[in-house]
Write a structure and sequence with these properties.
The structure holds two protein chains of two kinds. Helices cover 0% and strands 48% of the residues of chain A. In chain A, strand 4 and strand 5 form a beta hairpin. Chain A is mainly β. Chain B is an all-beta fold. In chain B, strands 2, 5, 6, 10, 11 and 12 form a six-stranded mixed sheet that branches. The termini of chain B are far apart. The chains are: A mainly beta, B mainly beta.
Amino acid sequence: EAGVAQSPRYKIIEKRQSVAFWCNPISGHATLYWYQQILGQGPKLLIQFQNNGVVDDSQLPKDRFSAERLKGVDSTLKIQPAKLEDSAVYLCASSLGLDTTDTQYFGPGTRLTVL
Amino acid sequence: AQSVAQPEDQVNVAEGNPLTVKCTYSVSGNPYLFWYVQYPNRGLQFLLKYITGDNLVKGSYGFEAEFNKSQTSFHLKKPSALVSDSALYFCAVRDTSGTYKYIFGTGTRLKVLA
């Protein structure tokens, strides 16, 4: 079974530029998550989708971050404009659904460096 | 609000010795608890989970975790540590009050010394 795919793996940009990350979840997984992991910290949920609907985006900085999952499969997370404090690893994860017993599986992440 | 705490930033253990990585939780209702491991430049890998039933949960790579309801703990254990177990370990709880999101602890760095 293929895992969660993410691209790119690494990205370096200057502040005020824009950047986009892509995620393809495990086939059949209805729930998709985007996390931000700052060095030395645990993952922080940015946004959670159930199919193509948003379940939770309470911690997404909506003035600069946006995400979509138009067809309920793959997803894109965008930052525009980027700030220095956005330097982090952006993790995508997926699970079968919202059942409390469902296990969440992670992709390898995209390491973003903002200069 | 649901939360998990990992009281140790780092745990050092000699190869071959048993290891324990601590996690305590706070939930309203039944706890759904998870352990993940993160190797350098990699995403998080699922190790094991507690949903219900037996308090001792067995997972990947020889790891197990003991659920203790009275102490609200879910400590990760392994009888004999390997150098290759050195990594960052995260405990997580699933929020059952609304969106079912995962709430992660701050992580514990395990260092196994040869």
